[in-house]
Amino acid sequence: MIKRIQQAHHFILAAFCTIAVFSANTQAEPSTKVNGVDIEQLLNSMSLKEKIGQLHLLDTGGATSAETIDGEIKEAIRQGAMGSFINVNSTEVANALQRIAVEEGPHKIPLIMARDVIHGYKTIFPIPLGQAATWNPSLIEKGSRISAIEASADGIRWTFAPMIDVSRDPRWGRIAESYGEDAYLNGIFAQAAVNGFQGKTLDDPTSLAACAKHFVGYSAVEGGRDYNTTYIPEPLMHNYYLPPFKDAIDSKVATVMAAFTDVNGIPATANHYLMQDVLRKELQFDGVLVSDWGAVDELVMHGYAKDSEHAAQLAMKAGIDIEMVSEDYVSFAEGLLYEGRISMQDIDTKVRRVLTLKAKLGLFKRPYADAAGKQDFVNAEYRQAAKLTAMESLVLLKNHDAILPLKTSQKIALIGPMADAAFDQMGTWALDGEKKYSVTVLDAFNDAFQDNPKALRYASAIPYSRSYEEEGFKAAIKAAKKSDVIVMIAGEEASLSGEAHSRADITLPGAQEKLIKALKGTGKPLVVVLMAGRQIALKNVIADIDSLIMAWHPGTMAGPAIADVVFGKFNPSGRLPVTWPKVSGQVPIYYNIKNTGRPAHSRPFTFMENFPLEAHQHTLGHATNYIDAGFEPQFPFGFGLSYSNVEYGQTKTNKAKFKRDETFEISNTVKNTGDKTVTETVQLYIRDITGTVTRPIQELKRFKRIELQPGEEKRVSFTLTKQDLKFFNRDVDLVFEAGTFHAWVAPHAMTKEHTVFEVL
Ligand code: BGC
Q1: Atom 6 of ligand 1 has which residue's CA nearest to it?
Q2: Strands (DSSP E) along 351-471, which ranges?
Q3: pTM for the complete prediction?
Q4: Could you confirm whether 292 is annotated as catalytic?
Q5: Ligand 1 centre distance from Cα of residue 474 (Å)
Q6: 289 φ, ψ (degrees, to nearest 5)
Q7: What is the pLDDT of residues 304-345, one digit of tens each?
Q8: Which residues on adjacent β-strands are paired with residue 490?
Q9: Where do the domains of the chain lie, and which CATH numbers do they carry?
Q10: C-beta of residue 208 within 8 angstroms of C-beta of residue 94
Q11: Residue 30: band (very low, low, confident or very high) from pLDDT cuts 50, 70, 90
Q12: pLDDT surpasses 80 at 270
């Protein structure tokens, strides 16, 4: 509900301030026209109330039709006290709100309709973590483009995506919404998503303003608990959390969202240093900065603002342009201005940015949405794109005895709670996805077995992923016994990841581990396909699983994508964008660790099962590891198998010593020794051996996806310059330091063979 601009004295002040506005603006900046709109002229003609209104973003209160729009909301628009809305998802509501703004509002300034269009609108693509597993930015761009076309048909012109919080912690539910643990990959995918959402020009009616979020370091929450505290030292902030934002800004992302979180003692929403010195000056962002949901007022809860008025002041001063759903700006900005706690310039700068965005989006010329686009929702082309992205996101992690691919001539038992989960296969943040469009694995397998339906037996065994009910085990085991092979579709329901859905224990929920053991007990080969919003700790069951595919939450086309991979119509090519832990306690776990003084891999290592009785501590080695889980992950970053076999030669550089201004060429030969055409993701990692701040043991610098025919060999080479070897030092200067480097052109991050080169 709209809080009135309550304090009586504010009404009296309004008149004063309006006069002040006009006099302050007699020195207006030179007129700048954006897409035909004279922003300065418009700004100068607006009352203070209207200006503050432009910074006001509210939820529509669940309006589903023009008639159900709240009367107070309508009145606020009429008075010019509203700038944008979140959670509009119908053309009717969008156009009804817009009509009031552009026909009855004081200056007929259009509204922007926003929505979280994260990995699809009606056609749901894999969750972003799955999209990242494709290592194929063109698919991410295409998916974002389709999402924008669909969403804009419902009047949406602003999405709160992409989320580019580099994520090292799968306990954190929002890892599902991220592009994984690597800053370079996040940057590549951020650019792809921004290009897709924003299209060729923002002015195109099918373009959405994208939003790079959450600035910054939200994923570093302690213990993976959502919204928790973060402490991020400057070199880590600059080398790891900020680069994807730089890439998004370089791709002209229209908006950025501030994180909810406390960063080094100051909540991001009020963090002047991060928002001004880093975001505006260092990263040169000149678009709209929006708060997260209610985050301005949460400054009080954080213990940083004394009250809501103070919260408005702090956020305004830090540089938040638009306040999302809390209403401290609209309630207190006038008073703060009168008291001199904020300046007219603070307000004007924000309003100028919002008006510029509206002009760039072409909303002044074309405020209304065209519902005609709805007829294309989930059309054949979009479904095909969603299927291809889902197929490429599938990561084959284990394939014992080459059980996969299966043949439809085999008898198959399809088991598991995610096999027919039309809703859950869409994953988190599929707000507008409708399960009626989903094709499940059961649907797709039924299709594949059309000519031989008796060969397919289906039993869910467990009704939903968290369930401990075991009544269904019996039917599942019976089906398994009558089959040649078991395909279990396991995992997590959509609601087990996403915002505020962190887990302390990331093993398979419910009775699923028990089911795996029971199925294994039948002696039949067991294929497990996981659908989940994060890596799942599999230590207890990995030995029981013969073949394993990670499918993430694949979206609308989960079934056909999984079927094509399982039955070998598509040779899997996905690669992990995260390191996969064996047990929850290994988290956070990531490939680009520091070496430490006692790296685990170079010291004697004894698991606790092998400790002699009454052993003295020093006999067991002193290295950085867990005595019960070791130091290695279940699967390394960048890992993924195929139905073929690819062999790598020796990584080579074109010289052993380079001058710093030379180009460094690093290459390897890659050969398909299998009998199927394969798409191989060749990865270049670098280690800088010594630095004035210690450097990670590996960093991904480049990758190339290449196709190899059976027997084909290719030389894959990468070129780097000293630019690629730079890092932020302790003084937060971006520096190149000469020295020795290691390089790997390799299939994943845990490849041992490397080459050494020097840069002088
Ligand atoms: C999330 C944002 C999201 C916003 C609007 C918040 O709870 O943190 O990522 O864009 O809600 O729905």
Answers
A1: 293
A2: 395-399, 412-415, 456-459
A3: 0.96
A4: yes
A5: 43
A6: -105, 120
A7: 999 999 999 999 999 999 999 999 999 999 999 999 999 999
A8: 530
A9: 212-221+231-347 (3.20.20.300), 393-566 (3.40.50.1700), 646-759 (2.60.40.10)
A10: no
A11: low
A12: yes
